[in-house]
Every structure is written in C-alpha cells, then in structure tokens.
Amino acid sequence: MADTKETSETLVRDFLGSWQARSLDSICRGFADDAVYHNVPVKPVEGIADIRAVFQAFLDAFSDAKLDILSLAAEPGLVLVERVDYFTMNDGRKVVLPVTGVFEVKNGKITRFSDYFDLADFEGQSGMKL
C-alpha cells in the first residue's frame, strides 16, 4: 500500500478524532504492531501492547478528551500537527495543553508518534506524573 499525502493525513486525523469516542480499539487501530509512541519529555513506549496500556491509563484518568487541530502539514509517510488537547479529568479539572505531534506512517500504519509539549504544564494541570 502506497502511503500518499492524503492517506497519511486521513490516518492521523482519524486517530486524533477517535479520542472523543473513548474506544481503545479505535484509538489504536491505526498503529503498527512495532510502533513507537514518545511523549518527548519522557521515555518512549515501544510496541502496540505497551502503547495500548499508556492510552488506557489516559482513558482511565480523563472523562473527556478532544484533540483540536490548529494546523497540519502532510507528506507521504509524514504528518506534523499543531494542536491543543482539551481533557476533563475524572474529578472535573480541565487540562488545556498546546502540543505538536509528529507522525511517521508506513504501509498505512502509524509507526512512530512523537508529541512535544511542556511536561510541567501537563503535570501541574492534570495532577498526573508521566
């Protein structure tokens, strides 16, 4: 399967949009089995099983999540997304976090997902430690 600009962009848009439905299977559907997820301020997570565990922990902590795309640039196999993530914690606290994500795509699957954000800002707003 050729990774075109359009298919790469659609894959990433679908992933980002899937968080609102809160289905772990939908969120993880676009990832390769050997994908790497890196919240850049902390250690990378390797493999779909460990990525699923991290995403499940986020779902367990938040009652709502909306990942709002501000700008997106796509090339075949590479998508850059500037966004603001809005989370509602289970206790009602709101988290508003500016993020830039870099997605590498190969054979129609996300192989690497790196998010760049201010760790202290996230931890201060959410009360979570990453």
TrEMBL record:
Keyword Secreted: no
InterPro entries: LEH (IPR013100), NTF2-like_dom_sf (IPR032710)
Alphabetized GO MF terms: hydrolase activity
Keyword annotations from UniProtKB, A to Z: Hydrolase
Short name of one Pfam family: LEH
Tagged with keyword Hydrolase: yes
Domain (Limonene-1,2-epoxide hydrolase) ranges: 11-122
Name recorded for this polypeptide: Limonene-1,2-epoxide hydrolase
Species, as recorded: Mycobacterium nebraskense
Lineage: Bacteria, Bacillati, Actinomycetota, Actinomycetes, Mycobacteriales
